[in-house]
Amino acid sequence: MPDALRALWKDEVCALLELGALTRDDIDSLLAAALGGPIDGGSLNTMWELTRGNALFLRELVRHGVDRGLLTDDGGVWRWRGKVQAGTRLAELVDLRIDGLGPSARGLLERVAVGGPLELGLLAPDAPSGLEALERSELVERRSDGRRRFVDVGHPLHGEAVRARLTPTRLEAIQAQLADAVQTRGARRGGDLLRIATWRLESGATEDGPLFARAAVRALAAPDPALAERLARAAVQAGAGFRAELALGRALAARWRCDSPVA
């Protein structure tokens, strides 16, 4: 907080009110009142997950959506068209939290933003010092699942802001590093195969057809037919043969079932 603003309530010129996070129902009521009509469930869920009830983030997200014609009135119900993403003003607000980080902490935050939630063991050996600084700034948070410990971005918008700053070259390098790290540790977890294959594919390493074919089958079981299709296509292009072609056919059939209107 800038000193000039801090002085306003310290000198009792104004009162400081702590506004906690809004619940999903709060956001539903607030948006209906502000927009003059209800918002559809899918858009509401996405905006809730992206802002986590932060009133300032929600305001700027809605402002961006309305100004760009992304959030519109569709027969009395407001809907967000396309992927819900932060606008420039909202990104600038989040950037204020990121500016000033040292190289070590910034590199660690980039890794978590791209691959999070990440097991602590996948971070660099010198990560603890940078991780402590990020935790103090509430840019990342730790959580546990049994004996496993993870680190993730403190807020979804922090991850968006960090990823938006990455050049394609830097992004692909991080994805390749993460895939190598998981593979080196043995890839024993249930979701490791999908993570490795997705990172390899997005980093441009498309020659491992058998990997993509196995991952496509796993994505079908998830079920994530869209990801299964991407992986199966990569497997076919890499010459993985009949197994890849079969996975692609099953993925296309699954996507057709998902996209077809109910009779």
Molecular structure report:
- It is built from 13 helices and 5 strands.
- It has 263 residues and is mostly helical.
- It has 3 domains: 56 residues, no CATH class; 77 residues, Winged helix-like DNA-binding domain superfamily/Winged helix DNA-binding domain (Arc Repressor Mutant, subunit A, Orthogonal Bundle); 92 residues, Alpha Horseshoe (Serine Threonine Protein Phosphatase 5, Tetratricopeptide repeat), CATH 1.25.40.
- It has a 3-stranded antiparallel sheet.
- A hairpin with a 2-residue loop joins strand 4 and strand 5.
- Helix 6 crosses helix 7 and helix 9 packs antiparallel against helix 10.
- It is globular and about 70 Å long.
How would you concisely characterize the structure shown here?
This protein has three domains: 16-71, no CATH class; 90-166, Arc Repressor Mutant, subunit A (Orthogonal Bundle); 167-258, Serine Threonine Protein Phosphatase 5, Tetratricopeptide repeat (Alpha Horseshoe). Helices cover 61% and strands 8% of the residues.
Overall domain count = 3
Largest sheet: 3 strands, antiparallel
SSE succession: HHHHEEHHEHEEHHHHHH
Share of β-strand residues: 5-15%
Distance between the termini: 56 Å
- What CATH architecture of the largest domain would you give? Alpha Horseshoe
Rg, alpha carbons: 22 Å
Provide mean pLDDT, rounded: 84
